[in-house]
Amino acid sequence: MRPLLTACLLLLFLSGCSPRVLTGQSDARTLELNAATSVAAIQPTMYGIFFEDINFAADGGLYAEMVKNRSFEFTLPKTGWLEPQTDQFSLNARSGKSDVIKTGQDQANVNFLRVTVKGPDYVLINEGFRGMGVKVGAEYDLTFDAAVGDGSISEARFELIDTAGSVLGATSVKLSGSDWKEYSGTLKSGGTAAKARLRISFQGTGVVDLDMISLFPRDTWKGRKKGLRKDLVQLLDDMDPGFLRFPGGCIVEGRTLARRYQWKKTVGPVAEREYLVNRWNTEFNHRPTPDYYQSFGLGFFEYFQLAEDMGAEPLPILSCGMACQFNTGELVPLDELDPYVQDALDLIEFANGDVSTPWGKVRRDMGHPEPFNLKYIGVGNEQWGPEYIERYKVFNDAIKEAYPDIVIVSGSGPFPDGEFFEYGMEQLTALGAELVDEHYYRSPEWFRENATRYDNYDRSGPKIFAGEYAAQSVAIASPDNKNNWNTALSEAAYMTGMERNADLVVMTSYAPLMAHADAWQWTPDMIWFNNLESYGTANYYVQKLYANHAGTDLLTITEGGQPLTGQRELYASAVKDAGKNEIYLKVANTGTSPQRLTINIKGAKPGATVTVLTMASDDLEAVNSFTAPTKLSPAESTVALQRNQLDVEVPSHAFVVYKLKL
Question: By its UniProt entry, which PROSITE patterns does this protein fall under (predicted)?
Answer without folding.
Answer: PROKAR_LIPOPROTEIN
